[in-house]
Design a protein that fits this description.
The complex is a heterodimer of chains A (88) and B (120). With 88 residues, chain A is mainly beta. Chain A has one helix and three strands. Chain B folds into two domains: 61 residues, Helicase, Ruva Protein, domain 3 (Orthogonal Bundle); 51 residues, Ribosomal protein S13/S18, C-terminal domain (30s ribosomal protein s13, domain 2, Irregular), CATH 4.10.910.10. Classes of the chains: A mainly beta (88), B mainly alpha (120). The interface between A and B is medium-sized, with 12 and 13 residues.
Amino acid sequence: MHASKTALRSVWKGPFFTPMPAAPADGSGVMTMSRASTILPSHVGRKFMVHNGKEYLPVLVTEQMVNRKLGEFAMTRKVYVFKADKKK
Amino acid sequence: MFFLGVNLPDNKVVSIALTSIFGVGRTTGSRICNQLLIHPQCRLKDLPEDKVTQLSTLLNGMTIETELRKQIADNISKMVQIGCYRGLRHKAGLPVHGQRTRTNGQTAKKLNKSRLSIGE
């Protein structure tokens, strides 16, 4: 809704993406730091290791993820969890 | 007057009365009135019969009320399901568009989780 409208980019430019190398033979994902890269229809079923600023997180691409960015699926922030109370 | 299960206030100007429908704001309300040639000062109780039928057929073709609520919930649950950032923020009940959370963000806390499913 809202974000898809604000994130509009000129049509003549096409989607932004970095060309990804072929998947490595051992089944591990392609290491990438290109979080802003658009997920293309040809990426469906592939695995990427997306950098979150600290480490590479695995992202398995499904059909619904097409047209979104790789970075949307690799969280950059750690969720703060309160420490459990020792005595009850 | 009842339209699609919504009670519209009879004493108000038509374009304003229409805004009690979820999915119709001031702009859409006045646009509908212009389209159906309803006078901008006309109250809903003074609306002639033929205009009322025209109005209801027009409203039937629009995505409003339950249909719209369902559409919104669907869009959000899709984002939650694929696990993208916006989906997780909705799920956590936190602001989605990058607002601060140290203070404020109370609207999101109040609304975001309830938007995951249909209903108020």
